[in-house]
Task: inverse folding
């Protein structure tokens, strides 16, 4: 950039650009917004960034992000110990919690098996999942995302835990609410047919 | 948000959401990205945020953002003192510098006159522009954005400085490079007709 841009500005633009989905244009828009905005906005952001890693840990049981270990869900005696939903990311825990219809516990893998990206089973919390299985656990809901990597990861876990006497299920595939048969892809429609349920 | 989200995560999501164009979804995506990313990425961002305001000032001459006052452009004796481009924001200076075809100096208003948003002439660096006019300055290029507020601001400045013996110009309106007559709005096309120039 030209000499018209002072270094602190360039540095912040570069730091924003390092975030996913933020290109140089958005980064400079954000930077110049902060230059004009009240100092409290950049101060809040800076403080929150500092606290993010220093004040959080992974729950030693489910590996969700938490301030206190074990996390509130693992501590909550009302949560069903017989049910573990295995998800890819902490955000997926949130998504399931939002349904307000799941009373079990979680296990966060922190990724999916992805040979292309050099991520193998040992890079995920799969071994830790096996170690959690005790007589309490009756069912593992493998809630990885549908798609190549999520499916491969689900299959790996299924084989890994086979013979441990625990039921393993996957989330239903089908047409999403508000979806339109005409626009739904063939694989989804096929799954919806296979998974059809009796009415009434 | 539910108890599944620890407070430091919520706080960062909120801090990101305070930025323009970043909704709650993007904010949580960024936050969970930073949780997994190397600590240096959030550290860099946090440091850059801290430096942004503490290490920059407004140039006391042109009011562009700068580390040293006066700014590099105002200090540069090769820049034509007879020409001042009046722009709304520091980003506009950048845009003009990128053309590599302007050798004059700048004046940053830091906004436009906007009664709706409660911004009057006194909230901008308009008085400071008048104070800069000396015998050196021959022409002021009012480079505010085309549109209601930019045009009103240009008109205000033109009246304010009338009779000071300085030539005032505006940037040409017309069809942008790669633009298509069919899709250009009527006002732009009208301006392009009015501003037509002789060929060869």
Result:
């Amino acid at each position: 950039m030209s000499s018209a841009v002072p270094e602190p500005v360039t540095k912040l633009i570069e730091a924003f650009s390092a975030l996913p989905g933020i290109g140089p244009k958005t980064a400079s828009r954000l930077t110049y917004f902060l230059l004009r905005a009240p100092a409290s906005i950049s101060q809040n952001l800076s403080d929150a960034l500092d606290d993010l890693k220093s004040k959080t840990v992974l729950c030693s049981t489910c590996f969700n992000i938490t301030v206190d270990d074990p996390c509130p869900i693992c501590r909550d005696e009302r949560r069903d110990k017989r049910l573990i939903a295995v998800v890819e990311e902490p955000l997926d825990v949130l998504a399931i919690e939002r349904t307000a219809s799941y009373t079990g516990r979680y296990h966060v893998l922190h990724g999916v098996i992805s040979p292309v990206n050099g991520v193998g089973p040992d890079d995920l919390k799969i071994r830790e999942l096996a170690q959690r299985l005790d007589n309490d656990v009756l069912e593992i809901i493998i809630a990885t995302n549908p798609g190549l990597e999520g499916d491969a990861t689900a299959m790996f876990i299924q084989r890994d835990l086979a013979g441990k006497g625990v039921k393993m299920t996957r989330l239903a595939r089908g047409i999403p609410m508000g979806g339109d048969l005409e626009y739904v892809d063939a694989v989804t429609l096929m799954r919806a047919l296979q998974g059809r349920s009796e009415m009434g």
